[in-house]
Specification:
Blueprint (H helix, E strand, L loop, with lengths): L3 E6 L4 H4 L2 H10 L2 E7 L5 H13 L3 E5 L11 H10 L5 E10 L7 H18 L3 E6 L2 H11 L6 E3 L6 H10 L2 E4 L9 H9 L5 E3 L21 H11 L4 H16 L8
Parallel strand pairs: 1-2, 2-3, 3-4, 4-5, 5-6, 6-7, 7-8
Helix pairs in contact: 3-4, 6-7, 7-8
Length: about 260
């Protein structure tokens, strides 16, 4: 079984915390040898738990940030706490941050201010940025063109846009990551975008415990299920799943500066 990386999951989420060791064991059995666990949801305690999990498990790395839903709480003090957490060698990215104009749990102004703060922090620390984008592609692209992408690069996680938006993000220097949404019957535009992403910008994720792929849609997601999304991604691209998996591993290692040996 070709090794695979789940480039975005939320292992500190209580939905996974109830049986985390079993979740990680199932991931390993499915050939998911490494995971990027993202904090960012809720309070700073989620980021702290995320880093702690990564420090206990050699196959887990961390990203820390403030989700756009919680952007109203992204104060300078919160950014300072993230900066301190990012000193851990297990923290390989900043985020997720971005704009979510679908749910609007925080105002547009608060979300934009938080995104700018995260971009500055990622640039300061020399780490890639993880971007959340929902119904906000045009505005995020405007901001990125104004500020610039961090030198370490970044990824548009859980991509839900069309091929045109994917192309614009790629031109800016981003990787594009596809989640279980790719497997949904109504995700025609997402699958069309997946056909257009260059091999060297392609990533895959679960966003667990959310967005489980078919046939698990509506159930709790977990990193082991990324294998199902890989199969649909490979079929969409008319490519060999093992070759796609190997390229995704190579891309993730490069962006997140992961060791080549999954045990380190």
């Amino acid at each position: 079984m070709t090794p695979l990386i789940d480039t975005h999951c939320h292992l500190a989420d209580p939905k996974l915390g109830v049986d985390l060791e079993d979740v990680l064991e199932r991931a390993g059995a499915a050939g998911v040898t490494r995971m990027i666990s993202v904090g960012a949801i809720g309070s700073i305690e989620c980021d702290r738990r995320t880093v702690a999990i990564s420090e206990r498990h050699p196959n887990v790395f961390a990203a820390v940030g403030v989700h756009p839903h919680d952007a109203k709480d992204c104060t300078p003090a919160r950014i300072a706490e993230l900066r301190d957490l990012a000193r851990s060698p297990r923290v390989v990215a900043i985020g997720e941050s971005g704009l979510d104009f679908h749910y609007m749990h925080s105002s547009a102004a608060a979300q934009e201010a938080a995104l700018r703060a995260h971009l500055e922090l990622a640039s300061e620390l020399g780490k890639p940025i993880v971007i959340h984008c929902r119904d906000a592609e045009d505005r995020i692209i405007e901001i990125l063109r104004e500020i610039g992408i961090p030198r370490a690069g970044g990824v548009i996680h859980c991509f839900t846009g069309n091929a045109s938006a994917a192309g614009k993000f790629i031109d800016l220097g981003f990787h594009i990551s596809f989640s279980g949404i790719l497997t949904f019957k109504n995700a025609l535009a997402v699958r069309e975008a997946a056909r257009t992403v260059p091999d060297d910008r392609l990533m895959i994720e679960t966003d667990a415990p959310y967005l489980a792929p078919e046939p698990y849609r509506g159930k709790r997601n977990e990193p082991a299920f990324v294998r199902g999304t890989l199969e649909v991604l490979a079929q969409t691209r008319d490519a060999d799943p093992d070759l796609v998996a190997a390229r995704i591993v190579e891309n993730a290692q490069g962006l997140f500066r992961l060791p080549a040996d999954p045990s380190n």
